[in-house]
Design a protein that fits this description.
By secondary structure, this protein is an all-alpha fold. The chain has helices spanning 2-24, 29-38, 43-55, 61-72, 78-87, 92-102, 106-118, 126-138, 143-157. It is elongated, with a radius of gyration of 22 Å.
Length: 158
């Protein structure tokens, strides 16, 4: 009887803590579980808290992925966004669905970032072109997106 009361109280405290964590910012299920583990809640209380916030629709990894992609489109490549969402514990299906619904245009992102970063440089210098290509390649943009985005940026500047 006493153990049941303690367990119920621990689960209540875990739910309250989960709600407080989500009050400040959206989190993925993995992030929420990690935060609750840091609070030294037992696994049964963490499971109960996660189930509760999911039931109340406060925790949704697909919605998190959509919001993340919408906010980072134009700043990051699809590859970068996908990797960051994976590290945050979002499953592949949710990432794929979110990318399909938002459809970020990597070529346009490269063009915009190229103009922002390299507009003041001498665009006729092949070294600038190569440096930009390496920069965007390192950010995970595809060869075609980089080539086309830089070409559009140079045409726009000319």
């Amino acid at each position: 009887m006493e153990n049941e009361a303690v367990s119920a109280e621990v689960m209540r405290l875990a739910r309250v803590r989960a709600m407080k964590i989500l009050e400040y910012a959206d989190r993925t299920e993995k992030q929420l579980r990690d935060r609750l583990k840091e609070g030294e809640f037992p696994p049964f209380a963490i499971d109960a808290a996660v189930a509760y916030v999911k039931e109340m629709h406060y925790l949704d990894d697909r919605r998190y992925a959509e919001i993340y992609i919408r906010s980072k489109t134009g700043q990051k490549s699809r590859y970068e966004m996908t990797n960051e969402l994976r590290m945050r514990g979002v499953d592949e299906d949710s990432i794929h669905e979110a990318l399909c619904s938002e459809e970020p245009d990597d070529t346009e992102t490269v063009r915009r970032l190229f103009l922002k970063k390299y507009a003041s440089k001498d665009l006729s210098d092949p070294g600038v072109y190569q440096k930009a290509f390496r920069y965007f390649g390192g950010k995970g943009f595809s060869y075609e997106s980089i080539r086309e985005g830089i070409r559009r940026g140079i045409e726009e500047e000319s």
